[in-house]
Specification:
The complex is a heterodimer. The two termini of chain A are 45 Å apart. By secondary structure, chain A is α/β, with parallel strands linked by helices. Chain A is elongated. In chain A, helix 8 runs parallel beside helix 10. Chain B has 20 helices and 26 strands. Classes of the chains: A alpha/beta, B alpha/beta. Strand 5 of chain A pairs parallel with strand 18 of chain B.
Chain lengths: 397, 554
């Protein structure tokens, strides 16, 4: 599935998962406690449930910019807190970013310039079209001999491509930070007393990798925060970023954080321009309050710091809400199925299939226009949220 | 009909310098003095008040990808200026990298009714318009960045006919819904991707072998031929580099008489004299500006305090990263199109370089004689946040105040500067020129920036306070398209703004090679880069205001 990688296209279901995601039901049934109701009834009930909460969590946020705008408006109205379903991965990146910044690049630059691609803790197999779109094609700057180095698991999943050599180094993902830190020290000329190996990698191989990286004309260090799933992975990313920065003293290197699933990039972008913060933000009396460590979905639900959940997941029926002890409202695809029925379920149209809108690619630079090749009578997330907001306003008046 | 009576009018576009007159407003427009039978629904007595058109900021980084990078980078800056939701206004944050909502409210509260984002990357255009769509109160527009994009450089390097370049520039303006064209470090952003760390005006690009001078010339010609009102907007080579005044003068000359706008010229007016090899070349730059009537500029004044620098100039921002305060920074290569760099900065009055930058900006303001060709900017947020404009106006209008501030800065810098010898104090009329009439004229906004019959009723009323900072910080009334939106410096009515964009004529045949290029080398389709007119409103603007261009023969 590569929805946010290069845009939603019905005619190109590149993988089974994509085909299933594009097999979108065009009708749905609103439910209260699992029983059929009208859309209006469901929205009214959702409004009562949410406006009765002290602090609701507006989570999931699997929708497009149109939906994100409406979700942020409602969160502001309700005094809610916002987080994306991929918040844990996103904030590994944001914490590293807010600590030190970074140097990054975008997909077309990779396609045309990258001669050395280091995949750190990922084989990019969750983004199968990454290779087809960014690595295999010819460069506009003449012939490019590319090398891919996979740091982590085996490189077996990397497709065979003309002019691209692939190698791998076995290293545990949670020791990548250590590896990058030592490489940076070597680069700075600090004579680290290198033992036989660094993070489990033989010293000679580390030296060889570093030599390759210094020799690259345009190197790209790729990671996928979702796959760096261990404590303090933000520090691993920071270590990667610091190595990239250091390499730029002599040659050109950039990071490329993979991502762009379920509208995560758009959610963060929209929240950032509207509040200043990339999600994990609560609307409080004094203004938005940003707590990247405290306002994660799992923690908020576990501690009971939120007392209602509005879960939005318009792309993927498998992205159901996490278990919660508090009342919940779900805006989901019509074919979403639940282990435990939410208090209110409202089926919504799928962005880019059933309604038009905007969705950012993983690099946040390109915002793609979404069209509605298969319009349906289902309302979009923004429409449903507007009705709920109207009911909330009505109740408040 | 609304009558605003007895106000002292400063309307330079119509030659009115402080005359007491009545203004009449109907249907969102200023109308001619009506006959005795006209029905006046509302009347406000403005005796003793100063009345100007709505202010226009023609160079302010209000939205787009790199502003969002700056926002995300600086939670600690936002925390000091939280903005609650109230009175129909949305929550957000202020100061150096304000949220979109707050940007609109605070501009309006200072009497601004139009703002122009000067660095929209065509590949990032849809995102930029989404951000600007969430900036309320003011009208908006954006300049599309060209000059380091590979399609253009390929054309230039291959010796393409100027007409083809014009078509591509026309296509870019159209496809990105832009108001003008900006070039940033001409060719240099691209050169940085080839590991080149500086590119002077006559140095060849490492891959294309074309020079920044050629880039400037081709783009200035294209903008001129297409009949775009605003001249090529140039962020020259060597930003911030001591000794860059020579480059700046060479860039002015490169236009060869064609109209050209040199932006944030303060950052481009540096010499290498003195012990610290950093000195003011404001006099030489100002002399050139005074002489060359085809050149306009805005200053990019530095004011002291915390801010963040955001620029398309990835090359120079990378070079500046060691000054980052707090110590974190972002540099990006972007999509064979451009780049960006975000470096937080704290300008300190006791720091020699920062203090001299401050003085150089003010010197430029005071030495350039024609206020129609030098505009009031801090290059928000690069020199200072836009909310410091009232302070800057006081520095320009009040010599005693200015000199008292000069006493506070780094003594060595003060001694190096000739600022103290400059007696000029800007008049209200000159302020009205540089912040209203001149930007409107430069952008081709015929019904904005003035108070004549037929103009949009964007009107600002100030109390005449000897403390010009207090005066310009809190207008008594601000009207946008005839509606009262601000009272006593506070928003009272939230409105949406329109989007200005030029609609040049060009040969759409350019889409054939362009599409081939996108299909062959890019990871996004050409069709997905283009924004339709309809998208402007779904992005959030109240409406699209198209400006036709009277093309000139190539």
């Amino acid at each position: 599935m590569s929805r946010a990688e290069e845009g939603v296209r019905l005619e190109r279901p590149a993988c089974p998962r994509a085909s299933r995601l594009f097999a979108v039901p065009d009708q749905g049934q609103a439910l209260i406690a699992g029983l059929p109701v009208s859309l209006d009834e469901a929205c009214r009930s959702a409004a009562i449930l949410l406006s009765g909460a002290r602090r609701p969590l507006i989570g999931g946020l699997g929708c497009d910019v149109t939906g994100h705008r409406a979700a942020l408006l409602l969160a502001e109205k309700l005094g809610g807190v916002v987080d994306h379903m991929h918040g844990a991965a996103q904030f590994r990146n944001w914490q590293a970013f807010q600590n030190g910044g970074w140097m990054t690049t975008t997909l077309s630059e990779v396609r045309n310039r990258a001669d050395l691609i280091v995949l750190a803790g990922t084989d990019a197999s969750r983004y199968p079209r990454f290779f087809e779109r960014c690595i295999a094609p010819a460069s506009q700057f003449g012939e490019l001999t590319r090398k891919i180095v996979v740091l982590g698991g085996p490189a077996a999943s990397i497709p065979v491509m003309d002019g691209v050599s692939v190698s791998s180094l076995a290293v545990d993902a949670d020791r990548l930070g250590e590896l990058f830190a030592v490489m940076r020290a070597r680069l700075a000329g600090t004579s680290t007393d290198v033992a036989a190996d660094v993070a489990g990698v033989p010293a000679a191989q580390v030296e060889a990798l570093l030599a390759d990286m210094r020799a690259a004309r345009y190197g790209v260090l790729v990671w996928n925060a979702a796959e760096l799933d261990f404590p303090h992975a933000d520090l691993t990313i920071e270590s990667a970023v610091n190595l990239v920065k250091a390499l730029n003293q002599a040659t050109r290197w950039s990071g490329l954080p993979l991502g762009g699933n379920d509208g995560d990039t758009s959610a963060a972008q929209t929240c950032t321009w509207q509040t200043g913060y990339p999600l994990r933000t609560a609307y409080e009396i004094a203004g938005p309050r940003y707590e990247p460590l405290l306002f994660g979905t799992d923690r908020l639900l576990k501690t009971g710091e939120v007392d209602a959940l509005l879960w939005i997941s318009a792309f993927d029926p498998d992205r159901t809400p996490p278990a919660a002890d508090c009342p919940s409202v779900v805006l989901g695809r019509a074919d979403m199925r639940f282990a435990r029925a939410p208090d209110v379920f409202i089926p919504v149209a799928v962005p880019g299939v059933q309604h038009a809108g905007f969705l950012h690619r993983m690099d946040a630079v390109v915002a793609l226009p979404l069209t509605a090749p298969a319009p349906s009578s289902l309302p979009g997330v923004a429409q449903v949220l507007a009705i709920i907001q109207g009911e909330v306003n009505h109740a408040a008046a | 009909m609304l009558r605003l009576k007895n106000g002292r009018i400063y309307d330079p576009a119509n030659g009115i310098d402080g005359e007491v007159r009545d203004l009449y407003v109907e249907g969102g427009r200023i109308v001619a003095t009506p006959g005795p039978d006209a029905r006046i629904d509302r009347e406000i007595d403005l005796a003793g008040r100063v009345v100007m058109g709505g202010a226009i900021d023609l160079h302010t980084h209000i939205g787009g990808g790199k502003m969002n990078i700056a926002r995300a980078l600086l939670p600690e800056d936002h925390r000091a200026d939280p903005v609650p939701a109230m009175g129909g206004m949305h929550a957000g944050c202020g100061h150096a990298a304000p949220s979109t909502w707050t940007t609109g409210y605070r501009y309006a509260e200072m009497g601004y009714t139009a703002c122009f984002e000067p660095a929209m990357q065509p590949i990032n255009a849809r995102h930029t318009h989404l951000e600007m769509g969430d900036i309320p109160m003011v009208d908006k527009g954006a300049y599309a960045m060209l000059g380091s994009d590979d399609f253009f450089l390929r054309m230039l390097a291959s010796g393409a006919d100027q007409r083809l370049i014009n078509d591509y520039v026309g296509w870019t303006l159209d496809a990105s819904q832009a108001m003008a064209i900006k070039v940033v470090n001409p060719g240099g952003i691209s050169a940085f991707k080839f590991n080149t760390r500086s590119l002077d005006i006559d140095e060849a690009h490492p891959h294309y072998r074309v020079t920044p001078r050629q880039v400037v010339q081709a783009l200035a010609r294209a903008v001129h031929d297409l009949g775009v009102a605003h001249p090529l907007h140039v962020h020259a080579s060597n930003l911030g580099v001591p000794g860059n005044a020579d480059t700046t003068l060479a860039t002015m000359a490169a236009a060869e008489g064609l109209p050209i706008h040199l932006t944030h010229i303060q950052f481009h007016s540096y010499g290498t004299e003195g012990e610290r090899k950093f000195s003011s070349e404001a006099e030489r730059i100002a002399d050139a500006l005074n002489r060359m009537t085809n050149v306009s500029s805005d200053v990019g004044q530095v004011l002291f305090g915390q801010t963040v620098t955001v620029s398309g100039d990835s090359m120079k921002q990378y070079g500046n990263h060691r000054h980052a305060s707090p110590d974190k920074w972002v540099v990006m290569d972007i999509e064979c199109d451009s780049g960006c760099g975000v470096v937080p900065f704290k300008y300190r009055d006791k720091n020699f370089v920062n203090a001299l930058q401050w003085a150089i900006g003010l010197e430029l303001f005071l030495r350039v004689r024609d206020p129609w060709r030098i505009f009031l900017t801090t290059d928000h947020p690069n020199g200072a946040p836009f909310t410091s404009y009232p302070h800057l106006i006081r520095l320009l209008m009040d010599k005693r105040f200015r000199n008292s501030k000069l006493d506070e800065i780094n003594a060595e810098a003060a001694a190096h500067s000739q600022l103290r010898s400059l007696d000029r104090e800007y008049t209200l009329y000159e302020i009205a020129i540089m912040s209203r009439a001149a930007p409107a004229r430069s952008l081709g906004l015929t019904d904005r920036g003035h108070l004549g019959a037929g103009a949009a009723a964007d009107i600002v009323v100030y109390r005449d306070d000897a403390d010009r900072e207090a005066m310009f910080a809190k207008p008594e009334y601000v009207f946008k398209d005839g509606q009262l939106i601000v009272r006593d410096g506070k928003v009272v009515n939230v409105v949406n703004g329109a989007l200005h964009a030029v609609k040049p004529e060009y040969d759409k045949g350019i889409e054939k090679p362009l599409k081939e290029y996108f299909d062959r080398y890019m990871t996004v389709r050409m069709e997905n880069v283009r924004l339709s007119d309809d998208e402007i409103c779904t992005c959030g603007a109240s409406k699209l205001i198209p400006h036709t261009c009277k093309g000139r023969k190539a």
